[in-house]
What does this fold into?
Amino acid sequence: MRAAVLHEIGQDKLEVLDDVEAVGFGPGKVRLRIRATGLCHSDVSAMSGVLPQPAPFIPGHEGAGEVLDVGDGVTGLSAGDRVLVCWLPACGACPSCKRGQTQLCLAGFMNAGTPNFKRPGGDVFGFAGTGTFTEEVVVGAGCAVPIPDDVPFEIAALIGCGVTTGLGAAINTAQVEAGSSVAVIGCGGVGISTIQGARVQGAAQIVAVDPVASRREAALRFGATEAVSPDEFADAKQRVTAGEGFDYVFEVVGKSATARTAYDNTRRGGTLCIVGAGAMDDNFQVNMFELFFDEKRILPSMYGGGDVLRSYERAIALWRAGRIDLESMITHRVRLDGINDALDQMRTGESLRTCVEL
It folds into this structure.
């Protein structure tokens, strides 16, 4: 089958090959035919080494498709079912799951160390235990979440990661209050979803911050009340909040420098929400006096900070009701052969989300 493979960490191009085989099918597993997958910045971060991932590997974790076969012991799924790929399934038995913090379950991460593909030259890993830049993939049954028939594959793919992450940051983690002021730093697919989440929650002012003009323009279409470049952020803070700072600031880049900017633009007693996935050696620093004196809440948000199955259902309900716009987030569509062009468009900020149709 065909798949896009990164041979070594640090390479910026994928090779589309036709000699890849999905392996590992058996009890508790399902084989999926991927129909659509989105490009998430985490894929690029894994390729560059910012996020840890063994290589060679197939990127992609934001996918949807059909069940081809189910292994022994799998219930609730049958061949032909339409599903989205959950890259962080809950095991239901670990301490995090028992506390109701299923987004912190580590079972899914353990899968990342087991190859689920192979080529004549050896084993190939799937990013985050999945790997959706491919025609077929074998995953644990918990990674295949049934979707209603009226949800297109490309919409389901977005819900599988970026939309759930951004909406959840605003709704679950920060719990944005109606009438509040919000700033979102980084307006790619996840940032746009965060903006939509803040709008759903009833924020009065939503300031989008991004260096790319096309992303600022997009942010306004998705609910931002204004959009500024990073150089204009201080003026926006003064104008919108009289210099006090925003009630909520979301960092959706994954860098300590932008996290520090976010902290500085959060009002005393306000909330800084870290959504971006950054590198292990990039340290965010605050001094002990300001930490105590400013009483700013620093809230990391992992995969939307809540039960992902409930978050999927909520995203579908909001989309059906017209409360969030998911179709317009897909700015580019490519086939698998165009994957490298799509990656370049993501790196430059030209695209919000690219749908790879398989």
Observations:
- The two ends are 11 Å apart (CA to CA).
